[in-house]
Amino acid sequence: MTGFSRSLRGLSVVAPIAAASMALNAAEQRPNIIFFLVDDYGWLDSEVAYGEEVYPNNHRVRTPNMKRLSEKGVIMTNAYACPISTPTRTSLMSGMHAAHEKINMFTAPEINTPTDFTGGTRGFFTDASNRENDDIFARPEWNYNGISPEPGVPHTQYMTPMVKQLRDSGYYTIHIGKGHWASMGTPGVSPYNMGFIVNVAGNMAGMPRSYYAEDNFGNQPDKWTYSAINDLEEYYGSDINLTQAITDKALKAMDYPIEKGEPFYLYMAHFGVHTPIHPEPQYYQKYLDAGQEEKTAMYSSMVESVDESLGQIMDYLERKGVADNTVIIFYSDNGGHSLNTAKNSVPHTFNAPLREGKGSVYEGGVRVPMMVYWPGKTEAGMRINTPVTPPDFYPSICEMAGVENPETVQKLDGKSFVKLVTDGSRLAKEAVEKGKIRNQKEANAFVIHIVCTTAGLSCII
Length: 461
Known about the structure:
Helix content is 28%, strand content 12%. It is built from 13 helices and 14 strands. The chain has helices at 16-28, 64-72, 85-94, 98-101, 162-168, 242-260, 281-289, 294-319, 363-366, 393-400, 418-421, 423-433, 440-443; strands at residues 32-38, 74-76, 79-80, 147-148, 157-158, 172-177, 198-200, 264-269, 326-332, 367-368, 370-373, 382-384, 449-453, 456-460. Helix 6 runs parallel beside helix 8 and helix 7 (281-289) crosses helix 8 (294-319). It is globular and about 65 Å long. Mean pLDDT is 87; it is low at 1-27, 126-133 and 439-446.
């Protein structure tokens, strides 16, 4: 991300006692933070228009709660991720660029199993017919066991996890859903080792075997599988789907810190909308009735199920009286699937007008949805076009939580986007109010460019 001023410092001098009092009050009012991460979720899979116009694919699926969040918070129209899951997820946790981490592909469940094709005798995708061939395009050595909070683990990037910073500063840290930071047998595979106090379902799995409780979410009595989802036994045999089950778990997990008056960090890492494409019966039929082909209707129903999860969490915060002190960050780990035909019959078209999708460095694979809502700090409904990338979340979330100058064993590559979404959205609102541009809610066609100057942030129309 292009650099910008991390802070706009005031000129007033505060007496030491008053300063200490203010610091105490700020600590008492530290916001709750919810990171709502959707898996394989495309830039156009929403009623929220992240582009400078509304494209046909924005009308494909109904997402009233994402729209609700967009009207409250800031839409980041140029948010980027890595083209595949693990590099993004590890970068979020380490604050390092994927190339700096040397993590360029997803981690395999088994330790010491590279997942890139090299044409040699090792590799998750090695084709036996090519084992005798040398691959002149083979990648250099990389950290195929993921990230590690402990030093000396072979083929891992040693780092201080972002969540550990929050936990050590007094946050109640909750992991719900997909982990996929590291391989089995390494410290990084466990959310507990990464700084989480609560963990539901987080392990080495990169995708579910099944989204249905009727199938025990892939858990078979006579056969253990890597993609079976753990910690959801209470739902086995019911008619609930995986998205709803982990949402229920998230709501229950937030009860404790709210009752105790502790700030909390919820990492709500949905498995949806990753393959397998399993329709959600509650929504599936209406998309068929609307004329979508069967595969697309299945996918649309999964998206709406994730949208419902977002709505339930927002409703929960309001019921508990903590909505006004809770930051919500919405993001995807990479672009939507486009190459395969699991979501529609014609490949390479699902993210149009963006080119390609997951696994590609074209924009369909790396440009992702993002929204930030910080009540009282961000201006409602504003749109900002300044690029944001995965390493930027580490310093940003630490700043939101009041963790100043976090100590890390790794060099942080990211820059905080807090001033971008707070002061930047204020500048954007002022531009609208002064008539420099038309009201964005009417046109959806204007994007504010917030840029860095030596004096701080400035707005360019």
